[in-house]
């Protein structure tokens, strides 16, 4: 028994009425030891910030596990009880978003290899008739990134770099963070996935 | 199925979610002008689904109360407009119900105006209507909202452009790959023919976005009813998660 899929439509300019959550950006409670902040700006093809987008994230926990039955290793609750795996942030007037999370662990890949730590990202906005999917990888995981099957599948090494966040120093004495801009078009167009 | 540490992995089978052709609109669709500076110009990079893609957030129960599904009772007074029930099932492409999944909706009021600072349409706001609702599907994938029929409204896409009446729907399903944001339309809308957003979907798939009027689901002397089933991506017949029943 199969059913015909419902098409995607744009979230439009008024998604802020229905989608933001007050705790949306907090994949893990703020102040959790080891928490990292990922910030970035969504840019359009004219180099203008996209101020009406929704950025969502989904990721494994620091042990590389999911509290989900779709993981054939079995579902497992995260060691940090406040860890939700999911984040959601509207972009501001300046096109920026912010997610507070824990760095995910590496994952076994169905092909027998290992996926480097990564965060899956969805972007919704006016002008996007379907969501865009990309991934955030981490700059400190050089060897793991080189072995990652998804990064390896990208033919152009220049474009591969669009998937790797930049380390960003934190406030004096505070934890550092990462910067991950999303370019919808242009010379630095981010890699988006058909998945 | 046993999988060791990542380094020792020898591979494993994973049921991936299928993405049949002919369902979604193209990202590059010039008739909808906002795509011009936002649709990526490079081809999408094909990715094989891994653990991050076949899992997803199973949340919502803790952030939804029953009253969130009634958009007509969120304020002191009642909103102006035609009271309607919007109900249906969430299924996957294999025909299986998607239970316990969060649905979020938002819409214009009966005059075709959104409660949003960027909406400049000179139609009245309704102090008794916010236009946002949420609910969880039940064990059979059913959902039900009570709301006001949204009005049509003009927009600047082309001369004398009007959006067909619609309600925005956001769904999670059970996996990252099932995530969907779409719009529900109403049967017989005379604005379909000139609405490029509606027409961006492949012709054969457009009617799947149109709800059906259901007299038998109305509440007599109270509200009309529209039924709309939403179908998220399925996994084909290949593999199912441990402990799951095949429908």
Features:
heterodimer; A: 195 residues; mainly beta; Protocatechuate 3,4-Dioxygenase, subunit A; 5-stranded mixed β-sheet; 4-stranded antiparallel β-sheet; 12 strands; 7% helix; B: 247 residues; 3 helices
How many beta strands in the DSSP annotation of chain B?
12
Measured by residues with Cβ under 8 Å of the partner chain's Cβ, the largest interface is: A-B, 80 and 97 residues
Shape annotation of chain A: globular
**Name of the CATH class of chain A:** Mainly Beta
Principal-axis shape of chain B equals globular
User: Which stretches of chain A are poorly predicted, pLDDT < 50 over at least 5 residues?
Assistant: none
CATH superfamily of chain A: Aromatic compound dioxygenase
- How many helices of chain B? The count is 3
The total domain count of chain B is 1
Structural class of chain B: mainly beta
List the helices and strands and how they pair.
The complex is a heterodimer of chains A (195) and B (247).
Chain A: E1 36-43, E2 53-59, E3 86-90, E4 96-101, E5 107-108, E6 114-115, E7 118-125, E8 132-137, H1 142-147, H2 149-152, H3 157-160, E9 166-168, E10 177-179, E11 182-183, E12 193-194
Parallel strand pairs in A: 1-10, 1-11
Antiparallel strand pairs in A: 1-4, 2-3, 2-7, 5-6, 7-8, 9-10
Chain B: E1 45-46, H1 51-54, E2 83-92, E3 102-106, E4 132-136, E5 142-148, E6 153-155, E7 161-163, E8 166-171, E9 180-185, H2 196-199, H3 203-206, E10 212-213, E11 224-227, E12 230-232
Parallel strand pairs in B: 2-11, 2-12
Antiparallel strand pairs in B: 2-5, 3-4, 3-8, 6-7, 8-9, 10-11
């Amino acid at each position: 028994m199969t059913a015909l899929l419902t098409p995607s439509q744009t979230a439009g300019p008024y998604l802020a009425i229905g989608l933001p959550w007050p705790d949306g950006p907090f994949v893990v409670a703020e102040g959790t030891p080891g928490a990292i902040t990922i910030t970035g700006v969504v840019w359009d093809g004219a180099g203008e910030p996209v101020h009406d987008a929704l950025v969502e994230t989904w990721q494994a926990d620091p042990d590389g596990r999911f509290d989900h039955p779709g993981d054939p290793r079995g579902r497992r609750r995260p060691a940090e009880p406040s860890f939700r795996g999911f984040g959601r942030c509207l972009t501001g007037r300046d096109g920026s978003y912010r997610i507070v999370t824990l760095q995910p662990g590496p994952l076994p890949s169905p092909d027998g290899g290992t996926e480097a730590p990564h965060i899956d990202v969805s972007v919704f906005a006016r002008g996007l008739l379907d969501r865009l999917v990309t991934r955030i990888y981490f700059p400190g995981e050089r060897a793991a990134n080189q072995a990652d099957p998804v990064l390896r599948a990208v033919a152009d090494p220049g474009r591969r770099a669009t998937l790797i966040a930049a380390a960003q120093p934190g406030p004096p004495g505070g934890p550092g963070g990462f910067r991950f801009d999303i370019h919808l078009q242009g010379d630095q167009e981010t890699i988006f996935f058909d998945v | 199925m046993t999988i060791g540490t990542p380094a020792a992995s020898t591979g494993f089978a994973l049921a991936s979610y299928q993405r049949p052709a002919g369902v979604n609109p193209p990202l590059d669709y010039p008739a909808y002008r906002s795509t011009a500076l936002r649709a990526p110009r490079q081809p999408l990079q094909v990715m094989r689904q891994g653990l991050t893609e076949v899992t997803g957030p199973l949340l919502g129960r803790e952030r939804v109360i029953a009253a969130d599904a009634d958009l007509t009772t969120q304020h002191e007074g009642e909103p102006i407009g035609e009271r309607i029930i919007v109900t249906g099932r969430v299924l996957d492409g294999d025909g299986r119900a998607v239970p316990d999944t969060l649905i979020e909706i938002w819409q214009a009021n009966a005059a075709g105006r959104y409660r949003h600072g960027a909406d400049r349409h000179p139609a009245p706001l309704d102090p008794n209507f916010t236009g946002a609702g949420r609910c969880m599907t039940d064990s059979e994938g059913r959902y039900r909202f009570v709301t006001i029929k949204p009005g049509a409204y003009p927009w600047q896409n082309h001369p004398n452009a009007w959006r067909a009446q619609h309600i925005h729907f956001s769904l999670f399903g059970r996996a990252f790959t099932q995530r969907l944001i779409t719009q529900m339309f109403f049967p017989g809308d005379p604005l379909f023919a000139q609405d490029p957003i509606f027409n961006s979907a492949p012709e054969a798939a457009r009617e799947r976005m149109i709800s059906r009027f259901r007299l038998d689901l109305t509440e007599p002397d109270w509200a009309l009813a529209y039924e709309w089933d939403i179908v998220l991506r399925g996994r084909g017949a290949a593999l199912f998660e441990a402990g799951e029943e095949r429908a």
